[in-house]
Design brief:
Layout: E1 4-5, H1 15-26, H2 43-59, E2 67-72, H3 75-87, E3 93-98, H4 101-111, E4 115-121, E5 142-146, E6 148-149, E7 154-155, E8 166-169, E9 186-190, E10 201-206, H5 223-228, H6 238-254, H7 256-277, E11 281-283, E12 294-299, H8 305-314, E13 317-318, E14 329-332, H9 339-356
Parallel strand pairs: 1-13, 3-4, 3-5, 5-8, 8-9
Antiparallel strand pairs: 2-10, 6-7, 9-10, 11-12, 12-14
Helix pairs in contact: 1-6, 2-6, 3-4, 6-7, 7-9
Bound molecules: pyridoxal-5'-phosphate.
The site of pyridoxal-5'-phosphate has 11 residues, from helix 3.
Family: Belongs to the class-V pyridoxal-phosphate-dependent aminotransferase family. SerC subfamily.
Cofactor: pyridoxal 5'-phosphate
InterPro entries: Aminotrans_V_dom, Aminotrans_V_PyrdxlP_BS, Pser_aminoTfrase, PyrdxlP-dep_Trfase, PyrdxlP-dep_Trfase_major, PyrdxlP-dep_Trfase_small
Length: 357
């Protein structure tokens, strides 16, 4: 039976990416060796890293604008720490927007370094919206936000204007929609949603913002070191970088971010229209802040959960259960999820209504 994978990450990747990366495990570039056993210093892998770094900047429209793309390790969670280490001056302050569990995790790490101002939070409303009215201190070292809140299904549609460096955790919506990426000074994203397997984190940083803290930064945590070593300071996650390159190449063939954004909008509209129409369900996020990547919803009558779960599982759907901290349902519709899979879910919801309304 065809499967429809709604997992929040690790999640679905394009089928052709799975096929090519599986082939590379057996025989990479006809070398007779596996991608898992070749040296990261070999000519073939250096070419992979170079192409992946360049393609990231090309797809984001950041080539020639003073940015560097890095493939690091430690997940997005490591960047919660690396960001203040590299940007927050001794005696300086950082500013953060609290829009969910991951934003709160980033705030916690920054607090270990210095004064950290939370400019606004939607925590009291169970993170069901993005705060809109707040002031960013002009003397802060940077402003940090989370573009898409994977757990709560909210997404920042308009980013605040500020003169201080803007740092953004784009783990769950990188490469999914058009933005003026040059408005961001540092973007990071765990690969395991829209790019590749877990194990590698993309960091895109404007070089000019680095080197201002006066702090002695350990090499492994120092963005400048990783830039100088061309993202090979230590052994990179070779397989994860290669698979990410395959996904980036796939995205370029689809027509890049403008083309995938259209499909993502169509998928989100289809599902949200059904959530709003169907009398058995409620969306959890405030309508104007709804995420096009993660749609969160609840059954109005929770006693129907067992029956509904059986319906979608029988249709080949997997990964629809909400995050363990919030419950309900979450449909993650990353780039590689086809529109047909969303139609299957919508049909299941309609079918369920017929017998359970
Ligand atoms: N930030 C966001 C927005 C996420 O969705 C996640 C994980 O789902 C993380 C950070 C944490 O990422 P990692 O597990 O790669 O550290």
């Amino acid at each position: 039976m065809k499967k429809h994978n709604y997992s929040a990450g690790p999640c679905i990747l394009p089928q052709e990416v799975f096929e090519k990366s599986a082939q590379a495990i057996l025989n990479f570039n006809d070398s007779g060796l596996s991608i898992l056993e070749i040296s990261h210093r070999s000519k073939d892998f250096v070419a992979v890293m170079e192409e992946a770094r360049a393609l990231v900047l090309e797809l984001l429209g950041l080539q020639g604008k003073g940015y560097q793309a890095l493939f690091l390790q430690g997940g997005a969670s490591m960047e919660f720490l690396r960001v203040p280490y590299n940007l927050l001056r001794d005696g300086g302050k950082a500013s953060y927007l609290d829009t969910g569990t991951w934003a709160a995790g980033a705030i916690k790490e920054a607090k270990a370094f210095g004064e950290t101002i939370v400019v606004a939070s939607s925590k009291e409303d169970k993170y069901n919206h993005i705060p809109k009215h707040y002031a960013i201190p002009a003397d802060a070292d940077y402003f940090h936000c989370t573009s898409n809140n994977t757990i709560y299904g909210t997404q920042i549609k308009e980013f605040p204007e500020t003169k201080i460096p803007v740092v953004c955790d784009m783990s769950s919506d990188i490469f999914s929609r058009q933005l003026d990426f040059s408005k961001f000074d540092l973007i990071y994203a765990g690969a395991q949603k829209n790019m590749g397997p877990a194990g590698v984190t993309l960091v895109v940083v404007k070089e000019a913002i680095l080197g201002k803290t006066g702090r002695n930064i350990p090499n492994i945590l120092n963005y400048q070191q990783h830039i100088e070593k061309e993202s090979m300071y230590n052994t990179p996650a070779v397989f994860a970088v290669y698979t990410s390159l395959l996904t980036l190449q796939w995205l370029k063939r689809q027509g890049g971010i403008p083309a995938i954004e259209k499909i993502n909008e169509a998928k989100a509209q289809l599902l949200y229209a059904e959530i709003d129409r169907n009398p058995l369900f409620n969306g959890t996020a405030v309508t104007e802040d709804r995420s096009n990547m993660n749609a969160t919803f609840l059954l109005k009558d929770e006693t129907q959960a067992q029956a509904f779960d059986q319906y979608w599982k029988e249709a080949g759907i997997s990964g629809l259960t909400g995050h363990r901290s919030v419950g309900g349902y979450r449909a993650s519709m990353y780039n590689a999820l086809p529109l047909e899979s969303v139609q299957v879910l919508v049909d299941v919801m309609k079918e369920f209504e017929k017998t359970n309304a």
